[in-house]
Amino acid sequence: EMKDNTIIIVLGASGDLAKKKTFPALFALFRQGFLPTDVKICGYARTKMDAANFHSRAVSYIKNPGEDPAVTASIQKFKDILTYVDGSYDDGAAFVVLNTHLEEIESKYTSKDNEADGIEKNRLFYFALPPSVFVPVAKNLKENCYVKGAGVNRVIVEKPFGKDLDSARQLLSSLKEYWTEDETFRIDHYLGKEMVKNLLVLRFANVAFSSGWDKNHISNVQITFKEPFGTEGRGGYFDSFGIIRDVLQNHLLQVLSILTMERPVSFSAEDIRDEKVKVLRSIPPITQEDTLLGQYVGANGKPGYLEDDTVPRGSVCPTFAATTLWIHNPRWEGVPFILKAGKALNEAKVEVRVQFKDVTQGIFKDITRNELVIRIQPSEAVYLKVNTKTPGLQTRAMATEMDLTYNRRFSNAKIPEAYETLILDALLGDHSNFVRHDELDVAWKIFTPILHWIDGQSGTAPKPVPYAYGSRGPPELNAFVERFGFQRT
Ligand code: BG6
């Protein structure tokens, strides 16, 4: 349920996340009328600026505003709901100042007939912050900016949640001292993507898919993330995390869990997440033998990873990883799930590729395996590779596609940004697309041993194989996927 009398407080309002994702998403929601009536958005950061300065800064974050007068008018109105407070992250007194500012806004709320226990005051705190200040900010907010009485307090936080199982547990339990599970919305922005949300519908609203969704029909599954650019100045952050923590342990594992979980009892947040946790618990930690690590080197005029000034010299941090997961349950026993992610590759693409088994040998020649491809981005699509009769007098089979490419089939639909749908869900109090604490715990269990090996905690750190900037990945990749039964169709 959407609550009126809400203030959204963006902490870290002048940082990168706020600029690239939070403010554009807030504006998009505002413009489409999805924010609560009379909402106010309060920025908080260390930078000192006046209101006018903050307005123009926040507005400059809006992507491609264009010349459309309706958009220009919305931007004007958006400015009116923005306020700003500056202060540090570790000083309680600064948060008292923030609280006074919020109370001033709230003092103008008027009561409604049904508010017997007082006027509701709702605050949604959005952490667009580096992890080093998660705990002090959580503490300071709880101690100084938490409204008691009618209304709800919520926090939105986003990875990195630690670096391995122990550090993640420690961080989560520190945060839990101040904010309950119910008040906490942990973002994995892949859960807000249209095609990831579509997985539930595809799987559970179609007998055609749900019946063959198992080891008897499926040979192997690949979940692939490709980006055509390198770390480009973000090497400092990236190098201490690596591609597995950056993309596989969270985004790709989330996709895997939705793709493989059993049908939830209902679509409630707890029922869905119970099933996700259950399937994740059936996955043993990934092994060195089932993992291929790569690091990009300069090519085609583009610099290699080690030539990025923000990357430590001689780093063996992987910028590419392929790793195979196994699910030990009756549905999936023996089916390899290959997760692959890399930076500085030949294209931008995220997709799921479900490769079915061969048809029993017999009457047809030249037929290929069925493959269901769910392209998460760009150009959202679902297509099924099928064999069909070549049209005409001869009876010959040929490979073709049943194609549901969104911009053709739904040409007028606007596909929302992940952050738009997630902020909206948090405002509605719906946890379905947020990461529960036990989900995070089991995700770290799967990846921690391999990460410790990669970090050199159990001896010498492995050296990733080189691949050229702009290539399809390490040359070893083809043999790797073939080892797990993948056939190029
Ligand atoms: C982030 C990673 O979580 O996801 C980035 O830290 C990555 O390295 C990004 O580029 C990818 O998100 P999207 O939405 O562009 O696919």
TrEMBL record:
SUPFAM superfamilies: Glyceraldehyde-3-phosphate dehydrogenase-like, C-terminal domain (SSF55347), NAD(P)-binding Rossmann-fold domains (SSF51735)
Residues covered by the Glucose-6-phosphate dehydrogenase NAD-binding domain: 9-198
UniProt keyword Oxidoreductase, yes or no: yes
EC number(s) reported in the record: 1.1.1.49
GO annotation terms (biological process): glucose metabolic process; pentose-phosphate shunt, oxidative branch
Matching Pfam families: G6PD_C (PF02781), G6PD_N (PF00479)
Reactions that this protein is recorded to catalyse: D-glucose 6-phosphate + NADP(+) = 6-phospho-D-glucono-1,5-lactone + NADPH + H(+)
NCBIfam families, sorted: zwf
Protein name: Glucose-6-phosphate 1-dehydrogenase
